[in-house]
């Protein structure tokens, strides 16, 4: 069976205030053309269809158009919800849409109810594991303490139990939206650290012939059977070096996996340039970025006048301007934001405790801080789901 694995469409998202709807529509057209040209048997979309729980109307219309065009092709499609989606909204009408061959899986309670498709070699069971917010699903999965590893393990135990009841030779494909150990993050993924450590080991998915992951925006191979497709478009300058693509997966009769990486259309290249303003305006090597979306980091000791206006004369598509004067690391003029860059909420809080009383928190106090942050994030997630 030939599968096309994609994820993280983020319909409705802008790139530094530039609408991406046109580029997203172009990607949908590219996906449909690929399905036809490469004779794909099933499309799998591993979450974050939308960029937010209540997407703009234009994004909903684009998704609706995509569903109709996929249904017209007669090629089954399996989709799950991600942490950016409202599972309840995305799943509205799932039963009716199911009849058209587009299978939405957004309910945690249905993780062990697969979409079963068949090829010449027998059945392939597709199990959809939507994003599982630990604090909201721990009771459903009967785990004592909310955590990503605990709820995903419980979900996969249900999947393995169901797969064991299927006819011999049934192959299993799992769609999941999660942060799996070994994956490389970028700046454009929403944090999912509620419930303690966010990353889960790839071994959780043992027993599946192929695991189609979503959440991380870079295309990645964790094992031959466990892969991220990544987002089809770049949504932050941290993705400037990404090669945006989809996975074309051939699943053999014995469950063996053959993967081919297929490139996605690039609406405009990304470039990150760094130096003083005068260097950036004069360097001939930067001519190649004239048509790119540009993030410029200025290292001038003193902020120059009208930097954006001057940069856009040479780089018309400059979208982001960052000031990073080249001072010594301990220079007091370093901004508070720069000193906190790359540090988690937990680390910042622990540093504050150490600053105030001269000693950092002990193990018990660190656990209290962690529980407090988890409670705040869980409350925010619950409000998002309730929207």
From TrEMBL:
UniProt GO BP: DNA recombination; DNA replication
Coiled-coil segments: none
SUPFAM superfamilies: Metallo-dependent phosphatases
TM stretches of this protein: none
GO molecular function, one term: endonuclease activity
Protein function: SbcCD cleaves DNA hairpin structures. These structures can inhibit DNA replication and are intermediates in certain DNA recombination reactions. The complex acts as a 3'->5' double strand exonuclease that can open hairpins. It also has a 5' single-strand endonuclease activity.
Family from the record: Belongs to the SbcD family.
UniProt-recorded name of the protein: Nuclease SbcCD subunit D
Organism: Streptomyces malaysiense
């Amino acid at each position: 069976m030939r599968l096309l694995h994609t994820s993280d469409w983020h319909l409705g998202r802008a790139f530094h205030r530039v609408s991406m709807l046109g580029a997203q529509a172009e990607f949908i057209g590219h996906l449909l053309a690929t399905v036809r040209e490469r004779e794909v048997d099933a499309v799998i979309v591993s979450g974050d269809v939308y960029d937010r729980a209540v997407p703009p109307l234009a994004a909903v219309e684009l998704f609706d158009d995509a569903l109709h065009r996929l249904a017209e092709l007669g090629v089954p499609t399996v989709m799950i919800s991600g942490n950016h989606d409202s599972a309840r909204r995305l799943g509205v009408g799932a039963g009716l849409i199911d009849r058209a061959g587009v299978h939405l899986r957004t309910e945690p309670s249905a993780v062990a109810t697969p979409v079963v498709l068949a090829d010449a070699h027998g059945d392939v069971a597709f199990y959809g594991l939507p994003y599982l917010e630990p604090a909201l699903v721990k009771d459903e999965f009967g785990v004592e303490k909310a955590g990503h590893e605990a709820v995903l393990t419980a979900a996969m135990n249900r999947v393995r139990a169901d797969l064991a009841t299927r006819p011999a030779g049934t192959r299993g494909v799992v769609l999941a939206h999660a942060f799996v150990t070994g994956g490389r993050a970028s700046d454009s993924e929403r944090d999912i650290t509620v419930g303690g450590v966010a990353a889960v080991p790839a071994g959780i998915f043992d027993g599946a012939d192929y695991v189609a992951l979503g959440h991380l925006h870079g295309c990645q191979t964790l094992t031959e059977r466990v892969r991220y497709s990544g987002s089809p478009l770049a949504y932050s300058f941290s993705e400037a070096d990404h090669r945006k693509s989809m996975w074309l997966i051939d699943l053999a009769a014995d469950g063996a996996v053959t993967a081919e990486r297929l490139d996605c259309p690039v609406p405009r290249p990304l470039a990150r340039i760094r130096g003083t303003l005068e260097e950036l305006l004069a360097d001939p090597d930067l001519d190649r970025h004239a048509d790119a979306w540009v993030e410029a980091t200025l290292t001038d000791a003193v902020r120059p006048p009208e930097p954006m206006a001057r940069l856009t004369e040479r780089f018309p598509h400059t979208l982001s301007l960052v000031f990073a004067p080249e001072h010594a690391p301990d220079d007091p003029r370093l901004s508070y934001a720069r000193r906190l860059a790359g540090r988690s909420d937990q680390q910042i809080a622990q540093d504050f405790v150490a600053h105030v009383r001269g000693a950092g928190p002990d193990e018990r106090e660190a656990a209290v801080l962690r529980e407090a942050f988890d409670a705040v994030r869980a409350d925010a997630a619950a409000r998002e789901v309730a929207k």
